[in-house]
Amino acid sequence: MRLSRTLAVLAMLIVPAAAGCGVIGFDISQDIPSSMIIGTQMETVAVVDAPPTPLMIDVDAEAEKQGGLASSAWLKELTFTVTSPTKGTFYFVSAVAITIDAPSAKLPEIKIAQLEPVPNLQTISVTPIPGVELLPYARAGAQIHAKAVGFFPKEDTTYVGKVVIHVKI
Q1: Residue 59 falls within a domain, yes or no?
Q2: DSSP assignment, residue 155?
Q3: Is residue 83 in some structural domain?
Q4: How far is CA 47 from CA 39, 50, 151, 164, in A?
Q5: Euclidean distance between CA atoms 86 and 75, whole angstroms
Q6: What predicted TM-score, i.e. pTM, was given to this entire model?
């Protein structure tokens, strides 16, 4: 009986201490708005730099909702889905690189994800670069940049995306 009470007291002490040591983690997601690539019947090689998308995730506010302060954040998942044409795929893309920067805070542009070759699927998952710390970027009003290599699709193609950030508190 005394041992179980001692364990219960230890658990009550350890859980709050662990919360401040990066043990508790949670995910935050942001949708990436719809973009269109104009199609052409000519097979034209393309290197497309998409306009920057602001990272609108307030990591610190989300960490507060979870009862702590953010100690780190990194990219967990990044997907893109063709929404038009129906059943369209990314057949026209051969490589994708995703970077992030925060010019106002003088944080350099760094690569956070890449995919090469790109599979001929309707939804692709761009592989995160392991260990890239995003917290200073998220706090500084970061922008996400996408660069794709391939050729222009034969018909207008619209896609959306989703970014998931994992946060530790």
Answers
A1: yes
A2: S
A3: yes
A4: 14, 10, 8, 25
A5: 29
A6: 0.81
